[in-house]
Amino acid sequence: MNMAEGDTLISVDYEIFGKVQGVFFRKYTQAEGKKLGLVGWVQNTDQGTVQGQLQGPISKVRHMQEWLETKGSPKSHIDRANFRNEKVIVKLDYSDFQIVK
Predict the structure, then answer these.
(1) Closest CA to 101 of 38, 43, 22, 31
(2) What is the distance between the alpha carbons of residues 28 and 14, in angstroms, rounded to a whole number?
(3) Which pLDDT score is estimated for 5?
(4) Which CATH architecture has domain 9-99?
(5) Cβ neighbours for 47, distance < 8 A, ≥ 6 positions apart
(6) Which residues pair with 94 in a beta bridge?
(7) Does the predicted model carry a pTM greater than 0.90?
(8) Contact predicate 67/54, CB 8 Å
(9) I need a surface site. Which of 4, 15, 39, 41 has the fewest CB within 10 A?
(10) Which residues form the Acylphosphatase-like domain (predicted)?
């Protein structure tokens, strides 16, 4: 992947399954997203999952996807991560990374 491709902006929706509520998953996700310079949001669902959207350069989004799939917060236990609706975008829809209640 060359630099230009790595800088292409993409948007992707995610949902994380496992022990991801009550373990500061949203707080860690927000911190990791901000560290990578991504924007988007994260929230708990009534089904016990965590969902949200990531936006930013493709190389950073890929890093965040791997983090969501394999790492998460220290006390979390991730069974699986679903990513969908991935698309190239011209500009970011958000100004920061927010935790939605």
Answers:
(1) 43
(2) 15
(3) 65
(4) 2-Layer Sandwich (3.30)
(5) none
(6) none
(7) yes
(8) no
(9) 4
(10) 11-101
For the chain, the domains span 9-99
Which residues sit opposite 71 in a β-bridge? none
pLDDT along the chain (101 residues), means of 10: 72 98 98 98 98 97 98 98 97 97 81
Q: Which residues, 6 or more positions from 63, have their beta carbon under 8 angstroms from its beta carbon?
A: 36
Task: Tell me which DSSP letter residue 91 carries.
Answer: S
pLDDT of res. 101: 81
Phi-psi region of 18 (alpha: psi -120 to 50; beta: other; left: phi over 0): left
Which of helix, strand or coil describes residue 51? strand
